[in-house]
Design brief:
Blueprint lengths: L11 H22 L1 H22 L10
Helix pairs in contact: 1-2
Length: 66
């Protein structure tokens, strides 16, 4: 007998959508409970973005890449 979608059993799409919609709220609750580690993660991410930006800038007088 195959499993059928009934009102008592939500479809896989409904389960995935529900999980995706709950993630931001769960992350925000975790940040509010203990912001220290999240501040460190945010600072590390900002540092990586800054380093990538600096690495991509063209320096005056530097030879052009081909």
């Amino acid at each position: 007998m195959s499993a059928q979608s009934t009102p008592e059993m939500p479809s896989l799409g409904d389960l995935l959508l529900d999980a995706m919609l709950q993630v931001p709220g769960q992350l925000w609750a975790a940040v509010q409970l203990n912001p220290g580690p999240w501040a460190l993660v945010g600072a590390m991410f900002a540092g990586l973005v800054l380093l990538k930006w600096l690495a991509g800038r063209k320096r005056p007088g530097a030879p052009r890449r081909r």
